[in-house]
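can u do me a favor
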């Protein structure tokens, strides 16, 4: 007895619809992706060419001092807390909303870097554009 074999059908996968789905997913991911933008704060480092004071001493300025322990003071007034919100409130109060005032950050040489970053972040969030980091003139090496 001889059985008839069925003809095998060729199985093909239609890739056209699969490619459409892949392109739609790609488009979805491109549209919904958020890109982080790095913000920069311009810092004008003072030049230590001479020991004379700057010419704009009559203009009101803000001075943020940071001790070695990370304690903040704004214009020689100690702050009750050493966090970003307190520093921003003090800067806002002292400047009366004028962000064109020059802002100097004076940090002790042993201050943690995080404390200086908090001060720079507060200045950046409030919109201060004239930021100075104060330094002392280095002594010439001893012969």
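np, heres the sequence
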């Amino acid at each position: 007895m001889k059985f008839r074999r069925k003809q095998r059908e060729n199985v093909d996968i239609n890739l056209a619809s699969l490619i459409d789905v892949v392109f739609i997913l790609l488009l979805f991911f491109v549209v919904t992706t958020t890109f982080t933008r790095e913000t920069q704060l311009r810092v004008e480092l003072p030049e230590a060419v001479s020991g004379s004071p700057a010419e704009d001493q009559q203009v009101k300025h803000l001075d943020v001092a940071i001790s070695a322990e990370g304690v903040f003071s704004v214009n020689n007034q100690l702050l009750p807390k050493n966090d970003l919100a307190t520093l921003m409130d003090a800067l806002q109060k002292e400047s009366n909303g004028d962000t064109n005032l020059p802002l100097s950050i004076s940090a002790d040489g042993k201050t943690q870097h995080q404390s200086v970053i908090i001060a720079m972040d507060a200045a950046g969030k409030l919109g201060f554009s004239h930021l100075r980091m104060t330094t002392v003139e280095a002594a010439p090496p001893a012969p």
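Residues 62-133 form a domain with the Nucleotidyltransferase; domain 5 fold (CATH 3.30.420.270). hope that helps!!
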